[in-house]
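lol ok so funny story. i was supposed to be doing the assay writeup but got distracted and ended up predicting the structure for this chain instead. priorities right. anyway since i did it might as well share w the group, maybe its usefull for someone
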Amino acid sequence: MKYTAFLLSLGLGSLLATAADFGTDASFKGPVGLQLYSLRGIATQNPPKALKQTKDFGLTLVETAGTYSLPPEKFKALLESHGLKPISGHFPYDRWKNEPDKVLAEAKAIGLQYAGCAWITHQAPFSEAAARDAVAVFNKAGELGAAQGIKVFYHAHGFEFHPHGDGTLMDLLIKETNPKHVSFQMDVLWVVFPGQDPVQWLKKYPGRWELMHLKDLKKGVKTGDLSGKTDVTNDVPLGTGQMNWPAILKAAQESGVKYYFIEDESPTVVEQIPQTLKYLGSVKF
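and the output, tada:
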């Protein structure tokens, strides 16, 4: 088996778990894919190599973050040639604001079900004005996307948890966007890092978190930071960091999360993803 040979070549023979193992003796059922940004170091130099690496991990679902200078149609064909199915993708906020029709056309050409944004352009600290601007941008894009069968989403990045009224600006974003057209992606690291509880946010807004980034935060890293930025070496394999994954995954399942994507931005991502897959294949809740 190619995957087995790959792990053995890394000296990781004990980590023989792939996405195919989910739904057997573990509680986590997925479906799980990979945010291709995890392999950006490879993909920017050699996109086919990054896609082969993804398939070698045993994953077939992906979330995109650009097409590496390829036209959307050619990138879709490249994904298909590697047996990968694109589910969602990230696009820059300024493009959503200025040319949502073009963004959605690209998303449709790639074959995405979800098209979103992972960072609202703003001057720190994030403000109510910036949040309301984003609400208008996402509501407009969401309506346009619905007409094309594409769900627009926002990926929270930590800075949105600034206090506002009796809640936070994240509450404002969720409450003021149209639930019929706009959903949200919870990146677990970017909820824990600013000092929030993922389980409580999943319970507070059931049905709004349709996508999730599975990402763990190194033990000992201080939380409560609203910058939306932390060193990439703080990304660690699932189950080795600060997160209570059994509780988070149980709440995600109950809240209605539809797709999960591993995102690991660390320089040791190729070694860490097999460890994450092994954990997901055995976690109980």
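Residues 1-16 have pLDDT under 50 and may be disordered. The domain at 2-280 is CATH 3.20.20.150 (TIM Barrel).
back to the writeup now i swear
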